Structures are given as C-alpha cells and as structure tokens.
Amino acid sequence: TDAGQVHNGFYWAFSSALPLIKEHALPVIKSGKPCRVIVTGHSLGGALATLTTAFLMTHFASGLPDNVSQ
Whole-model pTM? Predict the structure, then answer.
C-alpha cells in the first residue's frame, strides 16, 4: 500500500527520535496503566508529532490499548 511521502529532513529527524520513543513512550503505553498520550509540536515539531502519531497508530494496528486516552 502507498503510505505517503515524507520530506527527507523530517524523516531523518523522526528516525533520530524513534529510539527514544520506543524506549520511553512504548513501555508506558504497553504497561496497562491508565495514561494519556498527547503528541504536539510547532514547525519541525509539528511534523515530528504527526509522524509519531502515525507510528503509534501503525504500531498498534488494532487501535491504541484501552488504557490510553486520546
């Protein structure tokens, strides 16, 4: 399927942040404890927020766990 296109600079920045997202955010989400995920940013941060949201929604293909409020 065509997942869309991302500017190389935004992709590079997101790829640089991805290990931190996997290390810090995923364990919290997967813990089963109630949590709220807020992903936001401005300019480059907005692009990273969009890519992070897409990553999380793809990572949890069947939807975010019940413990996560959006």
Answer: 0.79
